[in-house]
Amino acid sequence: MKEKADIGIIGLAVMGENLALNMAGRGFTVAVHNRTVPGVEEGVVERFMAGRGKGKDLIGEATLEGFVRALASPRKVMMMVKAGKPVDELIERLAPLLDRGDILIDGGNSHFADTVRRAQAAEARGLLYIGTGVSGGEEGALLGPSLMPGGSPAAWPAVRPIFKAIAAKAPDGTPCAEWVGPDGAGHFVKMVHNGIEYGDMQLIAEAYQLMKELLGMSAADMSEVFRAWNGGELESYLVSITADILAFKDKDGGPLVDKVLDAAGQKGTGKWASVAALDLGVPLTLISEAVFARCLSAAKEERVAASKVLGGPAKKPAGERSAFLPDLEKALYAAKIVSYAQGFSLLHEAAAEFRWGFDHGGIAMLWRGGCIIRSAFLGRIKEAFEREPELPNLLLDPFFRERVEASQEAWRRVVAAAVANGVWVPAMASGLTYLDGLRSARLPANLLQAQRDYFGAHTYERVDRPRGEFFHTDWTGRGGQTASTTYNV
Questions:
Q1: How far apart are CA 220 and CA 364, in angstroms?
Q2: How far apart are CA 112 and CA 183, in angstroms?
Q3: Is residue 404 within 8 Å of residue 335, measured between CB atoms?
Q4: Could you report the per-residue pLDDT of 398-457, keeping only the tens digit for each?
Q5: How many Å apart are CA 53 and CA 55, to the nearest integer?
Q6: pLDDT tens-digit map of 216-258
Q7: How far is CA 165 from the centre of its chain?
């Protein structure tokens, strides 16, 4: 073992511990340290070194000062701590112990705006800063995650060999780790990844609910359907694990999934994606519905009370499984495309707003292995951006347009059956209405704008005049000719 560590990790919870083992297993010497909360987290380093870390190429340090001394120069410190205030507090403790050119790496799910601020502050101190998305959960951290680093460009050459070595490998052997851009770009890409993940998971849950409520299918039968779907165009990590979950038995022999409380948790990245979309004016409708769906699910007691007093239609069988399931497969596939399309539209707008210069096809390649949203058509996304690097929306690409058009009638039948029977499908329905809005050359926003001008003199543009020329009308005859300032959020 080397006298000095190649890299250090602070934070030995699930992700930090497994990343340390991953790095050590790839030939790197890793220093490890854990923030100590008296009476709560004491002895974490010692237990790790005596347990899973025993005999590995690891240097355990109980103190922050000892941890920093154990690192080779330039020091590379990867912080795997809870996002928010804990990251700022740790940086303030670490920075005085580091030298110019040392590198701080935040591998948690930090908000991209915090990463922009921290990168600027670190560089002002002579340090380099990386905010990197890490996707793949516990298994990915240990066996190979998808890594989405951004921040100080000068830091990338120093960490590239480590990140490339520990990352998941795509089917063609390419490491799923590549530099995505300056300051907060890495954490923005991870945030969008998680937003797409929210949408994907909600869509799968809705397909499950439709099978259960309209077809009366057992968990075992549904497992077989998802397993079959995973062998086709819907092949993905999330569809694969859904088949496993539905097949898993509890101690009493029944499906464990039926015992799981229907109240979903969330850590905030999906919400951040929705807020960023609102700030940038991007209609992230399906993904935002998936976020709100988790909020509604969490209101379990309120829903139980409402279910006793709010009525709905009597459910009617959806017909033969042999007819409905192919429709449902197509609906899930088309809606899934919309989820990715909205996510990449958000990346497109952010790249322009923050001057990050994203390689959208390259980002899709980062998600081919290790990460939660890896799926069969990520290669198709890269091909779409190779055809048109500035493609504003994936639905305009020939491949995705044709797939959605081929699935459209089935998708409409599924949503119509859900609505007629009172089955909750917010993401699947939202994706369909987004498609209908996008393909509409004229929307009723002309009436909205007339209303805004009527009550607030907010002005409007005319279809028979050039864009950018604004007009105000005295709709009642009682107003004046003074118009409000025109601006868009």
A1: 33
A2: 8
A3: no
A4: 999 999 999 999 999 999 999 999 999 999 999 999 999 999 999 999 999 999 999 999
A5: 6
A6: 999 999 999 999 999 999 999 999 999 999 999 999 999 999 9
A7: 23
For helices 426-438 and 321-354, the axis angle rounded to 10 degrees is 60
238, 204 Cβ separation under 8 angstroms: yes
Using only C-alpha atoms, what is the Rg of the chain?
25
Burial grade of 186 (CB within 10 A; 0-12, 13-18, 19 or more): buried
Largest Cα–Cα separation, the chain: 86
CA dihedral 67, 70, 71, 72 (to 10 degrees): 170
Rounded to an integer, what distance in angstroms lies between the CA atom of residue 350 and that of residue 375?
Answer: 24
Retrieve residue 151's tokens. Answer: 């921040």
Hey, which residues are catalytic here? Answer: 190, 197
Instruction: Quickly count: other Cβ atoms within 10 Å of residue 486's Cβ.
Output: 12
Tell me: the pLDDT tens digits for 294-353? 999 999 999 999 999 999 998 887 778 999 999 999 999 999 999 999 999 999 999 999
- Kindly tell me if the per-residue pLDDT of 88 is higher than 60: yes
Question: Two tokens at 173?
Answer: 């052997």
Per DSSP, helices labelled H in 299-320 are 300-307
Q: What is the pLDDT of residues 372-384, one digit of tens each?
A: 888 888 999 999 9
The two structure tokens encoding residue 123: 């560089």
pLDDT tens, position by position, 96-113: 999 999 999 999 999 999
How crowded is the C-beta side of 105, counted as CA atoms within 13 Å? Answer: 30
Read off the tokens for 474.
Answer: 């005295």
Cβ neighbours around 358 below 10 Å, total: 22
Record the tokens describing residue 393, joined without a space: 């929306």
CA distance 468 to 460: 9
Using alpha carbons, select from 324, 335, 317 the residue that is nearest to residue 199.
335
- Check if the beta carbon of residue 30 is closer than 8 Å to that of residue 58: yes
Return the number of other C-beta atoms located less than 10 Å from residue 456's C-beta.
10
> In this structure, are strands 146-151 and 128-135 parallel, antiparallel, or unpaired?
antiparallel
Neighbours of 380 (CB within 10 A): 18
pLDDT, residue 10, reads 96
User: Would you tell me the crossing angle of helices 185-214 and 219-229 to the nearest 10 degrees?
Assistant: 130
Query: Length of the chain, please?
Result: 489
Please state the separation of Cα 364 from the chain's center in Å.
12
The helix (H) or strand (E) run that includes residue 77 is: strand 76-79
